[in-house]
Each structure stands twice: as C-alpha cells, then as structure tokens.
Design brief:
By secondary structure, the chain is an alpha/beta fold. It has helices at 21-32, 53-58, 72-82, 96-101, 103-122, 157-176, 201-211, 230-242, 261-272, 296-302, 310-326, and strands spanning 12-16, 37-41, 63-65, 85-90, 126-132, 179-185, 187-189, 215-218, 224-225, 227-229, 250-253, 259-260, 278-281.
Length: 333
C-alpha cells in the first residue's frame, strides 16, 4: 500500500445499508463526488427506498439490490454480477433497540455481515473496506473524552456485536494485510432517521411532538451523548477513506461535545415554540450514562471540524419531520 492519498472519483463503490439513515446520506455524497458505479445492498429492515430518491434522480445507473448483507450466498452472487468493486462502505446493521427484544438475532446478524465482507476482502473481491462501528462499543465513559484506546466495554448485545465486528476487521487487517478502516461514529441525527419501531431519541421526540404522543425519558434525562449531524459523519468517513494515514486505523467520528437528553428536548421545544408532553420511566438496562468523543485523531488525520452546529442540525431535522407529519408520513413506511 502506497502512502499517497486516493480519490473516490471514478471508483465502483458498494454501500451496505445504503437505503438507511446514514447509508443514504453516504450514497448522496458519493454521487456528488463523481463515483463511476454505485451499488447499494439493503434488505429494507430499517432502510427505505424513498431515501434514495435524490440519488436515483442524479445517477441513473444506481443499482439497488434488496438482499440481506448477512446472507453470504446472496452477497457473493451480487459481487459476481456487479463486476470488480473498489471500496465497500459497510453501514448495514440491526440497531440497538432491536437487541433489547431480539438479542441473538441482532448479534448474529451484525457479526455475520462483517464476517462475509471480511472474507470477500481477503479473497480480493474488492480493495478497501470502510467498516462503520458505533460508539456503543465503548460502553459508558470511564474517562472523558473517550479516545480510540478507551476499553471496549459493551453494555447491550448490539454493542457487543459492534465490538466483536471491530475486532474481526482488525484481525483480518493484521493477519491477512487487507486494507480496512474502522470508523466509530458517535450519535448521529438528521433527516431520514428512522421514526418507526426501534427509532432513536430525536425522531421519537419529534414523532410525539407532531403526532400528539407523550415522549418517554428513561431515567433522569441527564445521560449525555455526543451528537453529530449525519452529513458531517459521511464527509468525515469519505475523507478518512481518501487519507493514506488513516488506513488500518480505528477512528472516532464525533463533535467532541456532549449534551444531555433534557437539553436536546429543551432545544427542540425552543424550535417548535411549544412543550413536548413527557413522562419519566425507569432507567433502561444497558443505557450508557456519558458519551463524548475524543476527536484528536480525526482532526490530526483530516483536519475535521463539524460543519453543522447542534442548533442548525436540530432546526433542519425538525423541519424534515414537520414536513413528513404534514404529509401524514410520521410513523408510516
């Protein structure tokens, strides 16, 4: 592997989970960066083909395969049909809330997705893997900010699946010399985040705000997260792919700041101009207490600074869900 930087332009890129929340924003960015060929694999467990409407308008040869990224046979067949792939951005995932109801399904599926891709990478079916991990792999912060060397201490089966997958990718890189990068995003938010079953905090809050429901805060609401706007995450991931010094590394992607659930709610209420009805329930098992990313490595590699502030990001997110609600689409797939 040379030390020179590379470009995504003119490449054949495959995105697993590309119809999902972060995945579809990754697809939009890749289209705008001039990739030659783009293939999306998504079984629509959480993904939604409507998330790819913009990309389809701009790239007429965008190929979308509705298959399960954990099904090795189907994935192998799709690789055989699509021709040589240069890079895979791996965003397919069964999310954290699912692991509280279907723990084994979540763990097995997430690890299998990673395992299938690592094997194809080892066989030379593509050149570079950019694997999306999760800050959940760290568990609750033992030290703040949380650097990449923070112990992996997962608290949910989902988090365990992400930690296991990270180890798998790194062992393939160490054992077989493959070109693999692990990016570890903290809490993403923004337009297109799933507001159905297994939804995150912000879409759930907005669904209650626009749908007349009551928002549930588990515990005291003082638990913090490092929120980063989705487009900042995908820009960072692409820049890391292009950065020669990032190869083989694990790199946090976050804002480097933390905010409590109660403070997020107060900001959203200020934007809406009204209070969201709220109830408090018992602390949820496996809910991490504090998260704040150490982004020193990210900054040193690509000079990263978030482009979208939390107030800007929340305003555009609220507007997205307001429009969904006006079209009667909140909570509708």
């Amino acid at each position: 592997m040379g030390s020179s930087n590379r470009t995504i332009e003119g490449k054949h890129v495959l995105v697993t989970g590309g119809a999902g929340f972060i995945g579809s924003h990754m697809v939009d960015l890749l289209v705008s960066e001039g990739v030659k060929q783009l293939t999306v694999i998504d079984n629509l467990f959480l993904g939604n083909l409507a998330n790819l409407d913009d990309a389809n308008r701009k790239m007429h040869n965008l190929q979308v395969l509705c298959i399960d990224a954990a099904d090795e046979l189907e994935v192998r067949e799709s690789f055989a049909k699509t021709g040589q792939v240069d890079v895979v951005f791996d965003l397919a995932v069964i999310p954290l809330p699912t692991s509280l109801e279907r723990p084994r399904f979540c763990f097995d599926t997430n690890v299998r997705i990673t395992s299938v891709l690592c094997e194809l990478l080892r066989e030379g079916r593509f050149e570079t893997l950019v694997h999306f991990s999760s800050s959940e792999a760290y568990g609750s912060a033992r030290s703040v900010p949380m650097g990449e060397e923070h112990p992996l201490d997962p608290l949910t089966p989902y988090a365990a699946s992400k930690a296991a997958s990270d180890h798998l990718v790194r062992t393939y890189a160490a054992t077989f010399g493959v070109d693999a990068l692990v990016v570890r995003p903290f809490n993403n938010y923004g337009p297109r985040q799933n507001d159905l079953q297994y939804a995150g905090v912000i879409p759930t809050m907005l669904k209650c705000a626009f749908g007349g429901g009551t928002f549930t805060i588990f515990g005291d609401g003082q638990q913090t997260r490092d929120y980063i706007f989705v487009t900042d995450t995908v820009h960072a991931a692409l820049s890391l792919y292009e950065c020669s010094n990032a190869r083989g590394k694990v790199v946090n992607i976050g804002s480097g700041t933390e905010i409590s659930i109660l403070d997020i709610k107060a900001k959203v209420e200020r934007i809406l101009g009204r209070v969201i009805p709220t109830e408090h329930k018992e602390h949820r098992p496996g809910d991490v207490r504090r998260h704040r990313a150490d982004v020193a490595l990210l900054k040193s590699l690509i000079g990263f600074e978030p482009r979208i502030s939390i107030d800007q990001g929340l305003a555009s997110t609220v507007e997205f869900y307001r429009q969904r609600a006006e079209r009667g689409l909140i909570g509708v797939q």
